[in-house]
């Protein structure tokens, strides 16, 4: 069995990639995808610790997060499509209506 | 035995009947058929007449001293007790109450009786006129007001009636309101009457202040002690020496009230409205401007006779104004060509006679003449109306003539009335006029002489009218001539009844000199002798009071008794002078008639000749002494000037300085405040906002509107937090491990 550090390293790598994606990318769809990466990094963490401690609750929690991620992707994409119909863009730096 | 009975208990119904129908007419009359209007309006006056007759009969059943019925419906004004000059206090009240005594009996019978006949006549006269219901509504309203006036038990209620008849007079003079002259005449009557009414109301106030009461008498009231009347207050004031015979305040009251009477009863100088009032329909002239309303002033003075008898100077004024009015108006009647104008001046002249009677202390004679005059002058006006009706509306005497056989009933009744007013024995006018002249002679031969000359002029102008209208050749147009017809029975029957009254109406005052008992004067004595009664009370006190022209103190009670008896007898005593005076009156009337006959029948002395001989005098008379012109120049134009002056003042000072100045000031003030608002208040607000903006600028930079920036900031914040609280995380992790 691989030691826990590997899992954590993988998780950390995924999280950092996700964060960098969220912060740097202009395309909202990519941002959404990056958020999926962050969520999955969390999932890996949860599953790894569940395995480590022999507690199934972590895996159940991971399943909830997967469901949540699916819902979030659906809502997020819905918003993006609605926005695109109005502004014909999905670029985040053009979404500045709230700025006065 | 005191006066009681059904009709006396229901006195208040007498004015109420016409009021009810008046209200009905003026609210729903338009929708009623003519027959309904006639039946209701004439019927209500008839009902009032029946109730009046019943009430007077029940009053007559009582002893002469007990012939007072007073009924208070409710208290109207109760301003509380007033402290009087004598030290005693009297409750000043005005009730809605009615008083029937011999004086108001005469008036109420004349008003309802003659009023009823004129209402019947109007059914015929107004049959083809527009506004039938309106006419009868006003007429009934007038009856209500007039009956309130004569039945009122206090001066204020009398004033209500007084104003009411004035209003109805105005409405009826201006009945044909589309005609400018008619509406102008209505306004003139109203305005001239206002002057008199001002005097009347001042008189009422002065009475209230002086005597503390405006109720005429407390006789006939259950609570006679507590409810003081003018008579009782006068007695009390004389007893307490607060007032004396000839006291200036009494003269003041009497003169102020007389100003009111001058206006209403068309005496000099306020007579000018009455000739113009002839613009109204003829029945109105008969009822209001001959028989009833214009005699209200006479009635009022007679009603207040106790005050007048104590004010000799005022009496003199009344007598002089009366007699001057009589001759002045008679002279104007001599040359008028409008049939109704002649009668109008005649009315003024006869009213002057009445005031002459009042002024010489012959109150009963004045009221007697009022009554007989109501009969024959109403008849004259109604006859004139019938003539005008027959002549298709022609009023000019110069275009009449030859009517004697064409309208026989009108002509004959008119002749009766003419004889009556001329004072031919034994018609009504003879007795009443002779009464007045007899009393005037005893007071002052000069007054008598003027009245005597007036009597001759009266006979002349009345016979001139008669001859011009009914005799000689017809002078009317042909098609008018063809339409001449006798009036319908609704008009002729009242004429015949009034003619009967003009003949026999004077007989109740048949003088003792001619073997009669002068029952009329005796009937009125309980009212007209109030002055004597007051003086009898004065006599009981120690104060010596100069009586009726006898100046100076009296030595003994006996001499005063004697004088008092003499005063009372003086009016009644028959002496050879009476016969001489009667003969003189008859002969001057005869002379007047003869002269008129010469002038207008035989044409031996054509009136044009006389007019040509004294053209200035003729013009003066024809233009009515230019009084209207003088009033116009002296009063009306000056009033207009004053109005123009006030108008200029209004425009320049009030509008210019006041209103516009205030406007300018307000604008200036608002400009200032606007400036303050704009620069100071708004400036403060804006600068605070600017400050906010300045301070918020760096913060604003943070809000880019890009979520990646926010995400970055969240990340940075997380890192900072983790860096700061890292050791806590280590602790947590250690614990977990």
Biggest beta sheet attributes of chain A: none
Strand content of chain A: under 5%
Low-confidence stretches of chain B: 536-559
Mean pLDDT of chain B: 84
Large-scale geometry of chain A: elongated
Q: How many structural domains are formed by the residues of chain A?
A: 1
Q: Tell me the series of helices and strands of chain A, N- to C-terminal.
A: HHH
Oligomer: heterodimer
CATH topology of chain A: Helix Hairpins
N-to-C CA distance of chain A:
56 Å
Query: Any idea what the shape of chain B is?
Result: elongated
Strand order of the largest sheet of chain B: 1-4
Question: Count of helical segments of chain B?
Answer: 29
Helix/strand-derived category of chain B reads: mainly alpha
Q: Would you mind describing this structure in some detail?
A:
The complex is a heterodimer of chains A (100) and B (737). Chain A is 78% helix and 0% strand. In chain A, helix 1 runs antiparallel to helix 2 and helix 2 packs antiparallel against helix 3. Chain A has one domain: Helix Hairpins (Orthogonal Bundle), CATH 1.10.287. The longest helix of chain A is centred in the C-terminal third of the chain and has 31 residues. The model of chain A has no long low-confidence stretch (mean pLDDT 89). By secondary structure, chain A is mainly alpha-helical. Chain A starts with a helix and ends in a 13-residue tail after the last helix. With 737 residues, chain B is mostly helical. The termini of chain B are far apart. Chain B has a two-stranded antiparallel sheet. A two-stranded antiparallel sheet of chain B has the order 2-3. The longest helix of chain B has 76 residues. The interface between A and B is small, with 14 and 9 residues.
Write the layout of secondary structure elements.
The complex is a heterodimer of chains A (100) and B (737).
Chain A: H1 4-24, H2 28-53, H3 57-87
Helix pairs in contact in A: 1-2, 2-3
Chain B: H1 6-9, H2 13-28, H3 34-60, E1 69-77, E2 81-83, E3 89-91, E4 94-100, H4 102-125, H5 132-151, H6 155-173, H7 180-211, H8 230-239, H9 248-264, H10 273-276, H11 282-291, H12 296-303, H13 305-309, H14 312-333, H15 339-359, H16 363-390, H17 408-422, H18 428-443, H19 445-470, H20 478-483, H21 489-504, H22 519-528, H23 530-540, H24 557-570, H25 576-602, H26 607-613, H27 615-622, H28 627-702, H29 707-736
Antiparallel strand pairs in B: 1-4, 2-3
Helix pairs in contact in B: 2-3, 2-5, 3-4, 3-5, 4-5, 4-11, 4-16, 4-21, 5-6, 6-7, 6-11, 7-9, 8-23, 9-12, 9-14, 11-16, 14-15, 14-19, 15-16, 15-18, 15-19, 16-17, 16-18, 16-21, 16-22, 17-19, 17-21, 18-19, 18-25, 19-25, 23-24, 26-27
